[in-house]
Amino acid sequence: MADIEPYESALDALPGAHPYPRTSRYHDAEIGVHRQADGTEVRYTKRRLLPPLDETGQDAAPHVVGAGERPDLLAQRYFGDPGQWWQIADANPVLDPRELTDEAGRVIVIPLADGFAQGDRRV
């Protein structure tokens, strides 16, 4: 994962600066405001639509699932952050992220858009 400028990390720590941290899947989601009958405003995150899958495969690399692997462990291996499992889930057409690794031998794709961590690049 690319280094984040120090001031950007500091902004993420300020209450109200960003509703979600830069590494969250909801960081770029639109925030809506609902006004209740008494005038109270309630902020909410609007529906997050998945980006289209890259049909050419240029923005992803295949990974053969091994026994005992989990999406968070794969995110740690490829992105250096287990909380980025959602990037792998978004790149594969599954409803439940557990489907990604529930069957050893299954081939899934690992997105390359944000780059791999410097560690393991096995596929």
UniProtKB/TrEMBL annotation:
- Domain of life, per UniProt, equals Bacteria
Region Disordered, as annotated, extends over: 1-27
* Name of this protein: LysM domain-containing protein
Its organism's taxonomic lineage begins at:
Bacteria, Bacillati, Actinomycetota, Actinomycetes, Kitasatosporales
